[in-house]
Design a protein that fits this description.
Elements: E1 2-7, E2 10-13, E3 18-26, E4 28-39, E5 46-52, E6 57-59, E7 67-72, E8 77-82, E9 91-101, E10 106-110, E11 114-119
Length: about 120
């Protein structure tokens, strides 16, 4: 009953920029936190940025100063603006939403992932 759909991935040269979007739809009552994770080949999935319902943000050191997370919760949408991309940013990027559904269930949901490739 809840779906997360990401878009905006692709291939860029080092130093370039991309903006990822994630739209949440379905039986949503409230969204508490939305975040972006990434999983590079052969590595564990890692949290890189999140934003709470009151706008508080937090970033992993690896992306701090280069990536910006923002939200339009009224539209159930979160963005990740990625700048100064490096080859080490290559990964599949996943959106995550911690929310309460209309039937009172509170849990996390994942998007399908979007590939980001950076060439040197």
């Amino acid at each position: 009953q809840v779906q997360l759909v990401e878009s905006g991935g692709g291939s860029v040269k080092a130093g370039g920029s991309l903006r990822l979007s994630c739209i949440v739809s379905g039986s949503i009552f409230t969204i508490d936190v939305m975040g972006w994770y990434r999983q590079a080949p052969g590595k564990q999935r890692e949290l890189i940025a999140f934003i709470t319902s009151d706008g508080t943000t937090n970033y992993a050191d690896s992306v701090k100063g280069r990536f910006t997370i923002s939200k339009v919760f009224a539209k159930n949408t979160v963005y990740l603006q990625m700048s100064s991309l490096k080859p080490e940013d290559i990964a599949v990027y996943y959106c995550n939403a911690q929310l309460m559904t209309t039937d009172g269930q509170r849990r996390g949901y994942w998007g399908q992932g979007t590939q980001v490739t950076v060439s040197s």
